[in-house]
Amino acid sequence: MTFDLYVFDRADLPDDEMTLVELLEDDTRWNKPLTPGLAGLVAELELKYPGLDTAPDTSPWASWPLSDSVLDGTGLALNIVWSQAGRMSAELRAMCSRLGLILYDPQESAVIRPASMSAPPPAKRKRWWKRE
């Protein structure tokens, strides 16, 4: 069993977990070329963390190579060993936020969007005594 995380490079990703899981289960949409944003993330991860082919005892990855695409290449499935789950989850959250990518953590049932995709804060209303 592995600690799985999914990264997405698409703004229209649903927040509803059931809908998202249904999309991920459609294996006709797997193994397509990754978007440039996801390919960049994979390249960065492969440079920073050892792969199973070079350091099987210290690698955070449970599967290699990292380019397991889903949803027509707009999603990436990452399988992490449990002993590295906390560190890699935090690292991937920071990387996704920096790169404008969405992270889905099925262990927490959480879709984590970067701040740039969050809804804008509600407009401040002037109080009745401050209106002109």
Could you walk me through the main structural features you see in this protein, from its secondary elements to its overall organization?
By secondary structure, the chain is α+β, with helices and mostly antiparallel strands. It has a domain at 29-115. Helices cover 27% and strands 17% of the residues. The chain is built from three helices and five strands, in the order βααββαββ. It has helices at residues 17-24, 36-48, 85-99, and strands at 3-8, 68-70, 75-80, 102-105, 110-112. It has a five-stranded antiparallel sheet with strand order 2-3-1-4-5, covered by helices on one side. The longest helix is centred in the C-terminal third of the chain and has 15 residues, at 85-99. It is globular, with a radius of gyration of 18 Å. The protein starts with a strand and ends in a 20-residue tail after the last strand.
